[in-house]
Amino acid sequence: MSATSPRSRRNQVSPGRWLGRATVTTIVVFFILFFIIPIVWLLIATTKAPRQLLTTGAFEWGSFHALSANWSALVHFQGGVIFHWLQNSAVYALSALVITLLTSIPAGYALALGHFHGRKVLLTTTLIVMLIPNTALVIPVFLELAAAHQIAHPLAVILPFSFFPFGVYLTYIYFSTSVPRDLLDAARLDGCGELSVFSRIALPLARPVVALVAFFSFVANWNNYFLPFLTEPGRREPIQVGLTELLSSVPAFNPTAAGVTTIELPTLALATVFAGTPVLVIFLFSQRFLVSGLTAGGTKA
Amino acid sequence: MSRKEPLAAKQMRMSYLFVFGYVLFLAAFGVAPTVYALYLSVMSGSGKFVWFRNFNRVRHDFRFMPDVIHVGTFVLIWLVALLVLVTVLAIIVHSLGQRWLSPSVRFIYYIPGAVAGASSVVLWLFVLNPTVSPVSGVLHAFGLKTFVQTISPAHLPVIFAIIAFWSGAGGWIVVMYGALNSIPSEIMEAARVDGAGAVRTALHIQLPMMRKWISYMAVISLAAGTQLFVEPTVLSQASQGVVPIDYSLNQLAYQYAFKQTDNNGAAAIAVMLLVVCVVLSAFFVIKGGLFERD
User: Domain ranges in chain B?
Assistant: First the structure.
């Protein structure tokens, strides 16, 4: 035993260290399960018949037959209203996305690299408003729109969605840290006008931040519930609001729903998958730049 | 010199053009609604100036104080969970090594962020329903046999905190991870050479470096938590009133505006909530020093 080589001694793990590693592994695995189990379960639930959901194991695959039955129950609910909801969501989120990009990219650029009176005030205001949760402004925005008689028009959700100070901040951070002023000055000396300095030099360099702003804007608007809940009634509802409408037709939650067209639990699960899929797909395809975006500024602080 | 002046003036003019659209939206959907809510909150329904009467009226509404307590309890639980767990998880995930394990774990933690809003609450309706839940064993262990038992009023702050943590924590872990990455590797190496273990390194080097970001998370979450709306609204819909329709302050404001057609009362509640957020946010922007780039 005394002849233990240094090498194998290094491989020997002391009990304290072993305990540390075991704790770390347990915590990591526990939270992987915590974050992922509900989603995995939801996907499996869509493949089950209503009775199977109660009788079979939670993670037992149902059948394609049940999946297609759930699908047809969902798409036939109120004459395919689900597609209306999805379409509304897409129109609201994408229109707001376009307006957000058109307004916030130039604004972030000017805040980072321009000189003008009121710049400091605008920057500070942007930071303060950015930290205010958008839900805090929903009731005031609703009261404002109601006073202007603009409720139940698509613009009643698209325009408020388009106000996205976080996008301005991201653009501002990007331009002030990764685009040198000298570069723009050189272009100006070469006779470039201000507009072409922006469109030909700054904008091509800003592609990553454009993608980032687009991502955060789309996700925030697709998942927004409170504002459209107030301003877009009836058939103008987006999917998030529509989803909760489905709830009132689920007998498992609402026994009084018997009589009207009812929605079974697996069908509700399928609708939830529909509501989450667009953002989930974007997540999967954009994880790299996303992570860099979330830490924007963080790495430089 | 004579060439430079007009150039600067031209640049300034263009800058105004560049910020114009954004300033328009800031005015229309940031400033104007705030000012209008302030105005409504000090007026009567018939348009007379009534000082703080609306605020007093709302404050003495029998639903107001319970809602403050509901929201406060939820925010407290959620905040503690976020501060402790996000910090610990970020440090642990950061220690996993750079190759593939750490990014994968980070991404898995982040995935629920995609299922935010009403869909995350609907998803949790399933998880909280012992008859179908994938973790019915856990629920049974706590003596919960039915959905109504699970969502009994005493459990709600914890439930809302779990739902909010589930969909939001991953994003914060990524942010904290970024902050940890900004610690120069020489410092970490020096600590290792000095014989500091993982726990001591975390306490004496990593935590101080993360401090600003932790307070950033605390401020944002505190402000967002006071706005609780979608979780109780959806649960209320699903439970036919076991969860009351006026559980949170924003729901109460909604009741004032929609059910009592009392926009002045709704505005008064909204202004109170907004003041909390603006004060928190302004304090942080001015004192926090996290956003200084000039």
Answer: 64-245
